[in-house]
Fold these 3 entries.
Entry 1:
Amino acid sequence: MAYTHMLVMFFIGVSLCNGFIYRRFYAKSPQISVTVQDQWFVQRLDHLNGADSRVWKQRYFVNDSFTQDSGPVFLMIGGEGAANPAWMTYGTWITYAEKMGALCLLLEHRFYGQSHPTEDMSVDNLRYLSSQQALADLAHFQTVMTEKLGLGSRKWVVFGGSYPGCLAAWYRIKFPHLAHAAVASSAPVQAVVNFTEYLDVVQASLARNHSDCPRSVKLASDTLLELLAYKENYEKITKDFNLCKLLDVSSKMDFAFFLDTIAEYVMDIVQYNNDNREFEGVKGTNVTIQVVCNIMASESLGSPYERYVEVLQHIMKAKKEKCIDVRYHKYVQDMRDSRWGGPSSTGGRQWLYQTCTEFGYFQSSDSPSQPFSGFPLSYHVQQCYDIYGADFNLSMVTGAVQQTNENYGGLNVQASRIIFPNGLIDPWHALGINTNLSIDLVAIPMQDAAHCADMYPARPEEPPVLPAVRRQIFDQLTNWLQL
Ligand SMILES: *[C@@H]1O[C@H](CO)[C@@H](O)[C@H](O)[C@H]1NC(C)=O
Ligand SMILES: *[C@@H]1O[C@H](CO)[C@@H](O)[C@H](O)[C@H]1NC(C)=O
Ligand SMILES: *[C@@H]1O[C@H](CO)[C@@H](O)[C@H](O)[C@H]1NC(C)=O
Ligand SMILES: *[C@@H]1O[C@H](CO)[C@@H](O)[C@H](O)[C@H]1NC(C)=O
Ligand SMILES: *[C@@H]1O[C@H](CO)[C@@H](O)[C@H](O)[C@H]1NC(C)=O
Ligand SMILES: *[C@@H]1O[C@H](CO)[C@@H](O)[C@H](O)[C@H]1NC(C)=O
């Protein structure tokens, strides 16, 4: 099979726990209208080289409505997408700030949103994109702002969800003289290349209230695989899944990209099940595991394959998406575009680079205990190669991921005053801290909750565990701030 453009997708979805998700087509970050003003911080380009004095401007937001001299400073860490100013008005941390008299800051992550350290995202420039540089950005920001705003007597608490959840924990680990405490929500602190557990958890979460659901999804997915074996079915498949262009699967990568893309719709539903994300401008949040599994159980709709088609149609309608583009060469072409403003510059190009050079996190279908097939680890690693160039292969990515775990410690966290909330429905919890490591390294496993569930604004329909979780985090922080 010719490997001319190969690769695959990877997704980052929409802006979430403040900027990210870890998957899917990079959609434009939804932004709703809020009145918070952009502010700009003069940041160093390369913190790891004292001889390099180049600087650039990093975006941040401030909410000083609740600040009191006796209160802490809260720093929300931006992640793999534009920092969404909606977080300056909404979200659990704002409710803590109100009660604690905190000053609230949100620093956008370098290379995302409007924080552009270099003139473009060429592979050469992307070497300044790393979690280590991002942590050093936070340290410099904190140091300069402390001086500028006279915050010397106040304690800093860092917050983040998902990748920024890792950054929150790592900031406390690496800069204990700066951060007093951290709330690391849904943080996959253990980097891993072959992240097969992701789909294992998807299967378990689908089965939670509907024991037959994974089996019907598997039957549907197997049927799809059978249909793909014959070109005469491509027109039908194109129509069933609203593909933007007639399906054309001529390489292994085309094939994997198509199957991965379709599966990601379901993965996304599981990861964000019932999260209160509407305030961020996310569409289709009312499609939940419950909705998907109810459709998969509706015999009146036909075979499992036909029900699965209905699931996809339903999701697309709710997200107001017109069609799905599964052209792998188009994806690669978009991902190779290094211009700010290019089609993958909302985060797709940057985040895949970080996974190839730091984290892996590749959600392969290599595990037998999950319903999907067709997107093995090799397909994910091949994307690194196809998009960023000839140096990438499995052994290089494996080495990079090992280095990340050596640097931060992975699950072996040696620190204090960090809270690790994790939704147990969320596939990412498999790489997080789910048991208490000590009296002040506190795990909060959240039953029936999804990715970053503790961070979103409260609402009546939320998982019943959340009010107690928010109180526990608040009480813990209150306690630590007295130390
Ligand atoms: C801070 O957040 C509160 C609560 O949402 C909001 O009422 C206020 O307008 C915000 N203040 C600023 C300066 O953004
Ligand atoms: C399972 O059902 C319970 C009770 O109705 C509900 O609270 C929970 O969110 C459901 N879990 C999933 C994954 O749908
Ligand atoms: C979700 O909301 C949309 C309107 O925003 C509605 O058309 C659709 O029926 C809802 N879906 C479910 C499963 O409730
Ligand atoms: C990925 O992990 C799965 C499950 O542990 C294993 O079966 C598979 O061989 C691994 N893939 C690679 C390429 O190492
Ligand atoms: C991967 O690339 C490295 C250097 O770029 C090379 O030394 C190694 O042999 C390659 N490994 C494989 C499995 O191709
Ligand atoms: C961790 O310790 C806290 C008390 O600090 C407790 O409330 C919680 O249940 C413990 N978590 C786990 C997962 O055991």
Note: Residues 286-287, 291, 318 surround 2-acetamido-2-deoxy-beta-D-glucopyranose (ligand 3) (CB under 6 Å).
Entry 2:
Amino acid sequence: MIDLRSDTLTRPTPEMLQAMMAAPVGDDVFGEDPSINKLEEMAAEMFGMEKAIFCPSGTMTNQIAIKVHTQPGDEIICHEYSHIYNYEGGGMAFNAGAQARLLKGERGLLSAKDVEANIGNKMDVHAARTSLVSLENTCNKGGGSCYDLSTISEIRAVAKKHKLGFHLDGARLFNALVAKGQKAEDYGQAFDSISICLSKGLGCPVGSLLLGSEDFIFEARRIRKKLGGGMRQAGFIAAAGIYALENHISRLTEDHEKAQNLKDALEKCSWVESIEPVETNIVIFYLKADKDEKAFMEKLKENNILAIGMGQGKLRFVTHLDISDEMIQKTASLLNSL
Ligand SMILES: *Cc1c(COP(=O)(O)O)cnc(C)c1O
């Protein structure tokens, strides 16, 4: 099977598994797991932030951040494509009692002007209190789109002017860093909190990190406990994260090249209506109106290729650690034969 559905599907490499098996562990709820402590320190240092906390999922790191940044009834400014709104089970309402103000913007990206225009009037009791701005980089539903640092600093300036928290859902932040040649420290300086996933492009079986100030992460630890996310000898999975931060970042360019190759192949296909720009490891394309999405995906599957259907003829391929050059070539020639 050539599984292009998601970069979450990767299995640990033999070297990663070895690092996991050899991990020193302890009880992390007691703060005594050396591997988790090392991973948290490594990540915080990488971004120039004070502290980090290891969690089971990116949904949990986002949800904890939202809970720490908001009070019930508050409003979160985010893009209508955002993962925190679309794909976290209504968690912002369930966990934080907060609501979203959804903005538009090309390929899942916000602008400072739109953010400022949508901040609730604090003096008006009718308005929800805006307390958080959340960006997503890369934006999944936007096709792996990336922010320029200049846009991020403009939005940060607006957030700070209005005393709002500034969170980044950086599930695929390393893809953006590599694609744009940006530095992790620039993100650490811009945001109050950052969530990063180890289980996407970095290839870990499990795990996400939330980064922030010492006070913020102290509160985050309390919320993680309430959510049941305090794990014990989880150093075995943290060790995969350490291995990935040391070995799997720069290779993301290979995934990006493979995504470009898929785009090149799709451009030659008569049945493709259009293709979104490809900046990282996600390729979103649209079938011509007379093509049926389900039937098309069935056809791919018969040829051992899996994709994700996003509805209305919108399809997604994601490249990752377990996709080889040979698999890309096979996929390209099959696409061109359809
Ligand atoms: C995957 C993802 C998350 C977190 O998802 P989990 O499956 O809970 O780890 C958050 N944001 C974005 C943009 C994602 O793609």
Note: Residues 57-59, 62, 83, 136, 140, 169, 171, 197, 199-200, 208 surround pyridoxal-5'-phosphate (CB under 6 Å).
Entry 3:
Amino acid sequence: MEDLAHSTCSLVRFVSTKPNIVTKNDGKRYSGSTVALYFTLGLFLGTSIITYKLAKNPPEFLFPHSSTTKLAEISSPRYGDPDKVVKELKNVLSADQIRSTKETLETHSDSSFSTHHATPDQRPVAVIFPNSTEEVSLVLKACHKYKVPVVPYTGGTSLEGHYTPTRKGISVDLSRMNKVLAVHAEDLDVTVQAAVGWQTLANYLKSYNLMFGPDPGPGACIGGMVGTSCSGTNAARWGTMKENVVSLTVVLADGTIIKTKNRPRKSAAGYNLNGLFIGSEGTLGIVTEATLKLNVKPKYENVAVISFPTISDASSTVAQFVQHGIQLDAMELLDDKMMKYVNVSGQTTLKYDEAPTLMLKIGGTTKEAVKSQINDVKRISKENHQNSFRFASSDAEREELWNARKVALWSTINYGQEYIDKDIQVWATDVAVPISKLCECLTTTKNEMNETGVAGAIVGHVGDGNYHAMILFKREDRPKVERIVRHMVDGALKAEGTVTGEHGVGMGKRGFLKQELPPDAIDLMRKIKFALDPYRILNPDKVFSIDPKDKGE
Ligand SMILES: Cc1cc2nc3c(=O)[nH]c(=O)nc-3n(C[C@H](O)[C@H](O)[C@H](O)COP(=O)(O)OP(=O)(O)OC[C@H]3O[C@@H](n4cnc5c(N)ncnc54)[C@H](O)[C@@H]3O)c2cc1C
Ligand SMILES: *[C@@H]1O[C@H](CO)[C@@H](O)[C@H](O)[C@H]1NC(C)=O
Ligand SMILES: *[C@@H]1O[C@H](CO)[C@@H](O)[C@H](O)[C@H]1NC(C)=O
Ligand SMILES: *[C@@H]1O[C@H](CO)[C@@H](O)[C@H](O)[C@H]1NC(C)=O
């Protein structure tokens, strides 16, 4: 497909001058030279074709008559000069809202813990810090006008190169839009701006005795959490981002501001626009506000720590909890290596067995309900050869345990730096499989890590069949790690699973996405992308390729 603005403009110019030329030549039609005749004939043919094309409704060059957009059918995007956008924005924003120090550009391109790294030239020209939805709209209007790539950014904790600027453009950091706008405690919902972090929100909701489900990486914010459709330790019980959004305010590629829904918990009013933006990784619009579903905190909740002789005992236990319909509030698995890293990191005051361990949240509205669940949990754990079973003895210990789980990646990296190599690299990746296949899949990954001789841990939000490998490696061993990850993904697909349960696709998993979905499904995503963002300016090259010349997979 041709660059749209370009073709539209030249066409309009041509059509609008047509009547003059035809009239001018009309009188000379039979008396002039052969050249004039051919010229007129040519002109006639040309205009007829264009008239014919315009008569088709909609014109074919704008909307190919197919339901999908294949990579082979399109041409490379042509982008404009980001400096023009920056210059224009300097007129409407204040100086402190446009930053281009080396450090700012670097933190908005990559992180040490990402699996996919930016090349040294993959940097934004500037980072813009809007104060409001209207300012985000101004930024996008300017980017649309000059066809300049634009990458949204909130917490910067995503792991697959999600916010790496692959094209010369700008980044939009929403960190100034960090306010909780309204809590409707009686309706169990809250409206927030995009840069409210899930931890900030959790603290804010404490006094209401309410909680928001999704809890991804420390530092992550609602905008990016919508972007990656994240989940976390609470998902098996309270759902992922997809189940927890009531409505969104989104700025579209050309600066149009939309709201997807009103505030009721359910609605059958038209398309599910929330679903369109959740998990779109900043490729379809910039989320500026969100109304989120809240849950009442369980009145009684215990945290149990159960260790097992083998990881397959631990994962079979989880599968049986699920198969028996035992509704736990969280089910986290940490392998022996992870327990060692947690232990060594000093994140917890108590030291734990360095053995495969389940951390469970067992909660309910009555003491009896919790007690009956605890009995079930104990019975099933025993049947699966548990080593030890203990409860967190205080609120402080519960917090500490859950925190240790949240910072598992940092503990792993610290261990690697201290005991393996100062320049240790980390690869943190996830897949999800049907629960009955969990045990086999994660044991295979663990064994392959061991046989390859690389260090690292397996952890998982195993209640929904989701497990992570955090692999530590020296730079020269990267190919070995790539092989392990490839096998982990292949294994998940063979088990009818997904190439990513919660981290998303970004740059790192685009190739794998093609393994999971039929080509037509990805071509449909591309069609949607082109319909909403015809100049391909919003976070280009993420999720799937938008450029036939792109060799990035
Ligand atoms: C230690 C650690 C633990 C983690 N644990 C989990 C976990 O348990 N579960 C889980 O799901 N993930 C986990 N993650 C991954 C990460 O935290 C999530 O992907 C999170 O949702 C990213 O949010 P963010 O604010 O950091 O987004 P960013 O990294 O800033 O952005 C993520 C994506 O969303 C886009 N985006 C950002 N802001 C907007 C916006 N306003 N509108 C539209 N698009 C936007 C970006 O362009 C990018 O594509 C973990 C990461 C770390 C480092
Ligand atoms: C945005 O907010 C900052 C900080 O409050 C302020 O300095 C700046 O002037 C605001 N920008 C505009 C365009 O009003
Ligand atoms: C835990 O870590 C400490 C050091 O912090 C170490 O001495 C101990 O052997 C580790 N293992 C166990 C099971 O406590
Ligand atoms: C692999 O497993 C064996 C047996 O449990 C263990 O002795 C060895 O240290 C492991 N290797 C690595 C690299 O972890």
Note: The longest strand covers residues 286-293.
